[in-house]
Amino acid sequence: MDWIVAPDPEGRALRDVLPSMLSAMGVAGFTDTIGIPPCRNALVLLIDGLGHQLLREHAADAPFLASLQNSPPLTAGFPTTTVTSITSLATGRCAGEHGLVGYTFAEPGGGLLHPLSWTLRSAPGGADDERASLMEQWPPEQVQPNTTVLERAEAVGVDVRTAVPSHFEGTGLTRASMRGGQFRGVRELGDLAAELLDAADSPGPTLCYGYHGGVDLLGHIHGPGSIPWRMQLRQIDGFVQMVAERLPPGAVLGVVADHGMVDLDPAEAIDADGDPALQDGVRLLGGEVRVRHVYALPGARDDVLAAWRATIGDRGAVISGEQAIDEGYFGPVSTAVRPRIGDVLAIMRTAGVIRSIAEPGESSLRGHHGSLTAAEQLVPVLVAGG
Fold it and tell me: Whole-prediction pTM value?
């Protein structure tokens, strides 16, 4: 399947960004596989949803960011979704090790964990819209027990900071992926810029991670390339230029993304909630529109695999979970993580698998990601300063 861009195991993936930055700062125990200029302090800004191809296609709306697009893109990992990618960035590990294997995935109680809210997406015998918290029953530190890169850096004396939206403080995803360092909650671009530049001016060594979600949000609602999306891209381009022009000597700013995005025609969607062939033998249906974790009832996997293949056809690749693991999509998979991966995976090339009843909000969106097309998998790594 020549449309699939598999995750890169050789050091040019999103998970390699923070170790490369720390190595460039001269911190022992980390390796630079990306090529970051030597620096005293490093800033990493993640622009949610800004794929490599999107930036190339809309360079006129982001001239400053495009001017930094001088090196090959990184691979985001699999699946190409925010919770997985941010955890890979923060831990330096693939999904098969850190365990956040999708937008939703199976939890030990028999339902689906929705990591963005750390709630139960569906309960055995319960309504699909149930939203019970799993913070106590399945704590984030248990789901993702690995030491983060931020914790490792802090342990050897690096001043570590996370400048992210204030409402991220104490969330399940923050506890799972962003443990370590000082939480610096921000509300608008102004205080995000101030936090980044304060870290750049620190005596060092200082590592600061920042996050902006507006490009992704408007891409989901209006579609990537839409006028609202382009206006948001122009705004973040000016923001990055403003920060870059104020960097002191010895500071480096690295701009990355967690995934790209594709614009889908709602008329082409496959509705799993309206197609009995996609429901027979299925215990749980996780993931998201562009990549589905399909959990089969005991003994039903082969029938489920055949039914999904027949329905999806050439619009995607339907493979077993074992095949995905064997082919390295999730990286090394621990024993604890294996039950979280679907018995069957539907990885979409075109269109998407919506759930009109269980996921009405997600199903109504225009922009999507999660799959392994180049538009979703490849993300930029843009470096200023040094």
Answer: 0.96
